[in-house]
Write a structure and sequence with these properties.
By secondary structure, this protein is of the alpha/beta class. The protein has one domain (2-102). It contains four helices and five strands, in the order E-H-E-H-E-E-H-H-E. It has a five-stranded mixed sheet.
């Protein structure tokens, strides 16, 4: 299944409902988003694009916190990475086991 900008214009409750729905779907999902925090929350794997080409591919928990990589890609990394672990540990893993495609212009 392909999702493009699926969180645009959603209020917080609708966003949470979408995340829960995505987690329940058994299909492979390709999610195109500019929402880095959303990508981190729902996807184990991230593919970063720059100038129409794959710039980086790997675990969301590593790529999206990598300040140098994200800066080279032209976007800000998620702040708060400390000692290899994201700040604010979750009590349960709600991430979807599917890639995210993060489009950069």
């Amino acid at each position: 299944m392909l999702f493009d900008g699926s969180t645009a214009f959603l209020d917080p409750k609708a966003r949470r409902n979408l995340i829960q729905l995505l987690g329940k779907l058994p299909h492979t999902k390709l999610i195109a988003t500019h929402g880095i925090a959303f990508a981190l929350e729902v996807c184990d794997r991230t593919i970063l694009l720059k100038d129409g080409r794959v710039f980086a591919d790997g675990p969301s928990s590593e790529l999206l916190y990598d300040e140098k990589l994200m800066d080279d890609c032209g976007v800000e990394a998620i702040p708060g990475h400390k000692n290899g672990e994201p700040r604010g540990t979750r009590t349960r893993d709600t991430r979807i086991k599917s890639p995210v495609l993060y489009r950069l212009s």
